[in-house]
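We give the entry.
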Amino acid sequence: MIRRTARLRREYLYRKGLEGKEKVQYERKRALKKALEEGKPIPTELRGEAGALKSEIALEDEQTAEYGARSHVDDEYAKAGEVEPKVMLTTSRDPSSRLAQFAKELKLIFPNSQRINRGGLVLGEMVESARNNGFSDIVMVHEHRGEPDGLVVCHLPFGPTAYFGIVNTVLRHDIKDSAQLGKMKEIAPHLIMENFTTPLGERTANVLKHLFPTPKEESKRIITFANSKDYISFRHHVYSKPKGDSSVTLAEAGPRFELRLYQLRLGTMDSETAEVEWAIRPYMRSGKKQRLP
C-alpha cells in the first residue's frame, strides 16, 4: 500500500509537471483552429508546425480537445460530483473541553463525517489511515488556551491543504437565547458562497464547498461563507415556512465564527516538501496584495 501511494503521488506530480507544456500546445492548436474557422491567415509562428497540429486536431474528440486546458486543480476534485465527501474530523492532542465541544458541533455541520480521537497518532499515520478508510478530507481544529484558533482542511489523497485561523468563535451552547435556536439537522445544507471573486477566492471556495454533498431541494438548512476583507464569516441557519411561501422564518443553529486563510499548500498536511501555493505575508511592503474578494 505504501508503494502504491508513492507511485500515485509520483504520477500526480508528473502530470502537474506537464501542465506548462500541455497548455502551450493547447493554446497553439486553439489559435490554429480559430484561424482556419474564420478564414484568416495562419499565424507566422505556427506555419512551420501547422501540418502536425492539423493532424492532432483531426484526431481529437470532445474530451481530448480540452485536455490541455485541465490543470492540477481539476485533478484534485475530478470525482467530487461522483462520490459524496467523507470527512474525518479530529483535534490537536489533549483537547480541552471547549475544543472537544467545538469538534462535536462541527461533526453535525459536515454531513457524512466521523469524529476521531487523535490520541498519540502522528500526522503521517493519521493521513495514511484516512486514505485506507476511504476518507476524502481531513478537518483538524487547534486551540490556544482553551479557545479554538486554527482549522486545517486537507483533501485526500494528494492535497491541497488549506490552513485557516479562527477568531470570534461562538458555540451553539454559548448562545443565550436558546428559545430562538433552530434545530441542528444533519441533512445536506444549501451553501451560500459570498464574495469569492478573485482566483484565490475561487480556489478557497472550492476547498470549502467540496466538504459538503449535493443537497436535496427540500433541505431547509443553509450554511453561509461570506468573505469580507479576507475574513470568512461562517453562519449556520435553518428556515421554515409556517404560512406557506409568503412567510419565511430564519433561525440560527450555530456555531458561528470567522476564518482567515493564511496558507495553501499543494500537498497533504504530513508532506514537508509540499509546494506552497499561497501564503499570507502581512508585513511585506507591496502596493498590491492578492486578496480573496
Summary: The chain has seven helices and eleven strands. Residues 19-38 form the longest helix (20 residues). Helices lie at 2-17, 19-38, 50-58, 72-76, 97-109, 123-132, 199-209.
